[in-house]
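Now for a concrete sample entry.
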Amino acid sequence: MKYLGAFVLVLILLFIFFNFLSSPFSTDTTEKDFVVNQGEGAGLIATRLAKNKLIRNNYVFLINSHLLGLNNNLKAGSFKLSPSMSSSEIAVKLSTGGNQDYWLKIIEGQRIAELTEQFDITLEGYIFPDSYLIPRDYTQNQILSVIKKNFDKKFAQAKLDSSSSLTDSQIIILASILEREARTLDSKQHIAGILLNRLSINMALQIDATIQYARDSRIKPKVYWTPVTSADLEIKSLYNTYHNPGLPPGPICNPGFDSLYAALHPIESDYVYYITGHDNQMHYAKTFAEHTANIAKYLK
């Protein structure tokens, strides 16, 4: 009986302690903005709640959330939470989804025409690909302000330690081409160097993606970036980089960080040609003869 009594006492103390850790962090009813990012698990959410002094203990939050069957139902979004809410109340609120904001996802390499008809097409190249949490009452100008702030920040980061002599607008145009031409940072940097080599000798860039941009700007298709035909190569447009040497007059899509970085940090080489083979690898060449051999070996 003595041990049973001690065991019961321990259980009672644990229950009291658990309830204490489950109780509100304080009596402060001031609401704080708390954002749950897409893909965040319950463990990380609990840790951040504790760090923001919204709950007393992250492990107790997880236990309460589990007991309520909510661990796998916590939603991404923006929430108004206060330290006066209990651990269970916060778990329930996070499971209902944030109703303050919505997510706007912009994918690398998309054109504005693919994304929305609301944004001015002169912003092509400057709509930085990312996931944005947007308040539902934001105007278009406010949304663009959020995107511009992010673009400026990422562009400044990409510029670090760059010795490029290109203007900002030229960098963005080049980055937009790299976004459509390559997948990895390394291949983008190599292609950036190759395209700069072509520019230095006044050689036409001969980029299919610029032809696609010119063609699709005219016909506004349901599906963009379809393969170029021989007839497409004869399109009369300043974006036809087969007929016009130099960079096109503007960006052809919205490049991501790697493409901006590659445009600012090209890998120097003597290469002038490149292809993506059927093996999904990049193959570079210094002469047209080498380029022709690569085509025969990797594209046929």
Summary: The first strand starts at residue 32 and ends at 36. The chain has a mean pLDDT of 88. Residues 2-22 form the longest helix (21 residues).
